[in-house]
Design a protein that fits this description.
Blueprint: H1 3-18, H2 28-43, H3 49-67, H4 79-82, H5 86-111, H6 118-133, H7 159-187, H8 193-214, E1 225-230, H9 235-238, H10 244-256, E2 267-270, H11 283-292, E3 298-308, E4 313-322, E5 328-333, H12 347-350, E6 373-376, E7 380-386, E8 405-410, H13 420-435, E9 439-443, E10 449-451, E11 457-460, E12 467-472, H14 481-485, H15 488-503
Parallel strand pairs: 1-2, 2-3, 7-8, 8-9
Antiparallel strand pairs: 1-12, 3-4, 4-5, 6-7, 9-10, 10-11
Helix pairs in contact: 1-2, 1-3, 2-7, 3-5, 5-6, 6-7, 6-15, 7-8, 7-13, 10-11
Length: 508
């Protein structure tokens, strides 16, 4: 088959594989797309490293073109200023992510040019570069294939054991099995036992996860009551200074509203960067908060804050803890900043060409010092995550500390009703399972909600609605295996499969 047709088909297969991600969750495409990919590679002449790299890159480009297309919605908020940047930002990001996949396929071809062992090496290397994608150059682990487990029922519970990296390896291995079984039978019949055994791990994982869920209570009956406020402020209106009073009034109205349950919430949570002014510098706003909160209540709110002199200030996107006296008792500064949103990578090169970050501040945001826990009165220590930080499966908490719950505030209003907010919600669900901690999430336009330590939805909101919801905080679990050992077993498994399949003489 001519190379151009092979590349075109691989692009389509990558695009199809992305449809298995939430919220579409067409998980059957995992097996179709990955098996066809393995079949195509098995039919190509061996040893062409350049062709292998381009094939993997084009497959990745198809995947990331769909998986990340929703980022383009951010450039429509102020289309007159930013629309021209959309193809460069979305296409450039998809291309950069696809390079990782191209390298994985190149190394696969170098290690295993022909033979049935390729089905072990390719998924292992692809899982390893996905892990690296989440770490190198500040990391961008959005839409790792392991997220497809969100649509696989009980399989998601494996995140408590192996985390997102391990799920990525398993999803990729399972996906190539239909083709692997056929190739193993045709090329080395005695080797078909291994893919059949790996196939059995899929129903076994589903059964284990379903059994884990069915034996547990669905919600707490005595946990502290948490209020999640979703103001649903359109991004085009959010930063207009003339809207500040109305935005704040709406937030306060939902904050002081009587709970449908007739119980006073212990904690109220507002979304990321909620008001279009510096909240901690506004005495009138803090006074209104003090008047609205009852004794013992605490407000956790996303906010922009500044630090420094009048002549030189650093800006942070933060979570402020405010007590019922209107006093800011704790500040957490986001330390994983969004490339292109909160800062511009390679600004020295791109700014002269007219590129700008999407968040319209005179200067780039500064990064905080790192993961921090906050002791929330009446609830306990909380992991604080702002927006983008919830997509990272590692370094959520300071080393050696254990929280009671996770708080995530975000503003997905940039992305309208695209798949982006739903993918973000699915990734926060994954963090809850990995950590064994319940999560309370307040999003400007949605999705907001409470998730228990097993990833189950206690209560959620609809996207694009102005609403508040009250929910009792579920119990936390003991530290999961993934919390205790991290990605080490995943890396050892990948290296073992690569070494045995690539260099070994073992007959399975």
């Amino acid at each position: 088959m001519a190379l151009r047709y092979v590349l075109a088909l691989k692009f389509v297969l990558g695009f199809g594989l992305a449809l298995a991600l939430p919220p579409l969750s067409q998980v059957w495409l995992i097996f179709v797309c990955l098996s066809l990919l393995l079949l195509i590679d098995s039919m190509q002449p061996p040893g062409r490293l350049r062709h292998a790299f381009w094939g993997g890159l084009v497959f990745g480009l198809g995947y990331f073109s769909f998986a990340l297309h929703w980022i383009g919605y951010a450039f429509l908020v102020d289309a007159q200023s930013y629309l021209w940047m959309m193809p460069f930002a979305v296409g450039g990001l998809a291309g950069l992510m696809a390079i990782y996949w191209g390298l994985a396929f190149l190394i696969t071809e170098w290690l295993v040019r022909r033979g049935w062992r390729r089905w072990l090496v390719m998924p292992s290397l692809l899982a390893m570069v996905e892990w690296l994608r989440g770490i190198l150059f500040t990391g961008f682990p959005w839409d790792a294939p392991g997220l497809m487990a969100d649509g696989m029922g009980g399989v998601l519970q494996l995140a408590s054991l192996v985390g997102m990296p391990g799920l990525t390896l398993l999803v990729l291995l399972w996906g190539v099995l239909p083709c692997a079984i056929v190739l193993s039978w045709r090329q080395a019949r005695q080797s078909v036992l291994l893919p059949l055994l790996v196939l059995l791990t899929l129903p076994a994982s589903w059964w284990w996860g379903q059994d884990r869920l069915s034996s547990l209570p669905r919600a707490a009956n005595n946990g502290p009551l948490i209020r999640l406020v979703q103001p649903n402020i359109a991004q085009s209106d959010k930063w207009r200074s003339e809207n500040g009073a109305k935005v704040f009034d709406d937030l306060m109205a939902m904050t002081v509203a009587v709970s449908p349950a007739g119980v006073m919430p212990s904690v109220i949570i507002w979304p990321e960067a909620t008001v279009p002014f510096l909240l901690d510098e506004s005495e009138p706003a803090l006074q209104r908060i003090a008047e609205g909160l009852k004794p013992g209540q605490t407000l956790l709110t996303g906010a922009i804050r500044r630090q420094g002199s009048v002549a030189r200030s650093d800006y942070f996107t933060s979570i402020l803890t405010i007590d019922h006296h209107g006093v800011v008792t704790h500040r957490y500064d986001k330390w994983r900043l969004v490339p292109g949103g909160e800062y511009l990578p390679l600004a020295w090169l791109l700014e002269p060409l007219g590129f700008r970050k999407v968040a319209d501040l005179p200067e780039a945001f500064s990064a905080g010092p790192g993961p921090v826990q906050a002791d929330v009165p009446g609830v306990g220590p909380a992991v604080l995550l702002i927006c983008y930080e919830a997509i990272f499966p590692h370094q959520l908490v300071p080393t050696g500390q254990r929280a009671r719950w996770i708080v995530n505030v975000t503003n997905d209003g940039w992305f309208g009703r695209s798949i982006g907010p739903y993918q973000h919600w699915a990734q926060t669900r994954m963090r809850a399972v990995e950590q064994g901690l319940p999560m309370a999430r307040a999003a400007n336009t949605g999705v907001s909600g409470m998730i228990d330590a097993y990833g189950r939805h206690v209560v959620t909101t609809e996207l694009g609605t102005a609403v508040f919801i009250d929910a009792q905080l579920p119990e936390s679990l003991l530290p999961t295996l993934f919390v205790r050992v991290g990605a080490a077993p995943f890396l050892i498994s990948c290296l073992f499969l690569i070494l045995v399949a690539g260099f070994g003489r073992v007959k399975f």
